[in-house]
Amino acid sequence: MKGVRRPESDRHPRLIAARIAAWLLGVLLASALPAPPIYATSQEPWKPAAPVQKPDGPIEAEAGEESPGDSTDTETTVGEEPVKVATLVFTTDAPCSLIVGGVSKGSVEPDEPLEVEVEFLELRVSALSSEVAFARWDEDLELELDETREVAIPMLEAIEEQRKKERRELVFRNIDSGLMWTRRDNARDVAWTGAAAYCEALELGGFENWRLPSIEELETLEAMWSIRPLKVADQILLSACCLWSSTEGTDNSVWSLDFRFRREFELNRSLSFGLRALCRRDMTAEELAEARLAADPKEQKRRLKEKRRRQDEKKRREEAKAQRQAPTEEPEKEP
Fold this sequence. Notes:
- By secondary structure, the protein is α+β, with helices and mostly antiparallel strands.
- 29% of the residues lie in helices and 25% in strands.
């Protein structure tokens, strides 16, 4: 009957039978396996080996053998200096640190050439700016044996390219207010004094005159606020809801803006939990005119066309260079 528990007397014999069957199966499997090999052992007792006596005179080599001192092996020993195959002389127009073939070679200063001996005919050379973070120059070189080549590092050009990238990716221009904003805040809790110091010390996009915005300037961003995700006009990404302003209140307090509730709060400047620093700077007339021109759809189309033209021209130059460097096949001579 379904749901009725069987008595112990009915279950116990079955359990014993199952255990016996498992034991028998184990015995049969063990007997079916091959026996391990038996190794013969010597019956003689172990004796220590006799000590080796060093001969008094020099070791004489037998016929057809080399003496230890006449070896002609020319393999490279550990600690041997690498063989120089070429020499590079580096010059630069801005201070930078040099990496040749993945190995740091020190720093290069303007008007102070640096000579580096290399052990490979094909390698990559990189230079990192000592003044601007992430400004980098890379070049793949193909050398000839015993060649001495001068390499000019265009570090100023690399710095300008990095600044353009920062302005394009890390800076937001608000044409209506004439202000330039950072696209990211400081990404951690900070008190008001630390927030003000952060903006004053910031160097981004080639600009240094950053500062905390006033509460009125923050309110210009409030109208473009989107709660999910924490973005302003799809341009500024915040890591918290509240931002410090430069507008001071009463009794050692400063005004802050909470973008969740779209409200201003007067907080003690020593507080830091959930508070961030977002920096801004005033655009010059030339920068504002350039920003307005870049926002024009026709100008954007023209710049995109110019960018594609430069890319195609660079590709053609690389293909022409590869063809010049490719080995030419000699025509077969007629018999």
